[in-house]
């Protein structure tokens, strides 16, 4: 939006400038309706520059500098060949055509070669000179649908635990929109949560968010598109999909599984440790109460049923590893400073 405001302002300046020139130098435009002609010329000139700007919007500064260097190098080679004496015996008209062909041909070849080269190739042309980047390359973080819906990536970004440019592919946005418009209420709720989480990520000022338009029409699966895009961009893939992570690893694509990251960051509990926990529901056995740690670990409190709805102090007795995670068994204990024995 801000860019178009600048463009409209620039177009207005060009239009007024054309009118001003028509008044100062009427010989530059037609004698009749000179002011109107000046306005049209100024408007056309500004519109032409804006059109050129729109056409080269994907042309980076690195590409421009490389193209300029290639153009100069091609022109230098064409000049050396022209002055080599090979064409001294031809007439002037033919000599001009030969010069034009040399400059166009070698300039084009020079620009193409410069665009296809990298910074290391310049050391062959200018010995002992290395061009070092003034800043580090972008750390690209590619998000899939499951990572966006999960929402923990937003917490990591807001906590400044993850740094980089967030890349969200257009086909992931499309998939997220389809989930949000689903007739299944559960899927629809997940999709809307994903859109809310994405909006939260975009509002984070620390990390830039880019919507990538790249797509691979030959790939029908979103997972395959994600892996190819991550490999092409050199990005790290963030996902909750275990199978997608394994496919990415097989293709040498870096990935982060948020579930595995959460497991690695879970606190290690040992028997005898004291906890403070809220009893939220009854347990399976009589007298038991159930509470949860902040990371979702279930804590079974013996004789905790009467304390349901209250925050109590407990002491860890044992841990049980299951397929779904760890279950902590604990007993009630009095708060610190209160003796549990007889007075």
Write the layout of secondary structure elements.
Layout: H1 2-24, H2 34-55, H3 61-82, H4 92-116, H5 122-125, E1 140-143, H6 145-150, H7 152-158, E2 165-169, H8 170-180, H9 185-203, E3 209-212, H10 222-233, E4 236-239, H11 242-250, E5 255-257, H12 258-264, E6 274-278, E7 281-282, E8 289-292, E9 298-302, E10 311-322, E11 325-332
Parallel strand pairs: 1-2, 1-4, 2-3, 4-5, 9-11
Antiparallel strand pairs: 6-10, 7-8, 8-9, 10-11
Helix pairs in contact: 1-2, 3-4, 7-9, 8-9
Characterise the protein shown here.
It is a single chain. The protein is α/β, with parallel strands linked by helices and 343 residues long. The chain has 4 domains: 1-57, no CATH class; 60-135, no CATH class; 140-264, Rossmann fold, CATH 3.40.50.1010; 274-332, OB fold (Dihydrolipoamide Acetyltransferase, E2P). Helices cover 49% and strands 16% of the residues. The strands form 2 sheets. A 6-stranded mixed β-sheet has the order 6-10-11-9-8-7, with no helix packed on it. Strand 7 (281-282) and strand 8 form a beta hairpin. Helix 1 (2-24) packs antiparallel against helix 2. The longest helix is centred in the N-terminal third of the chain and has 25 residues, at 92-116. The protein is elongated and about 110 Å long. Mean pLDDT is 80; it is low at 123-136 and 337-343.
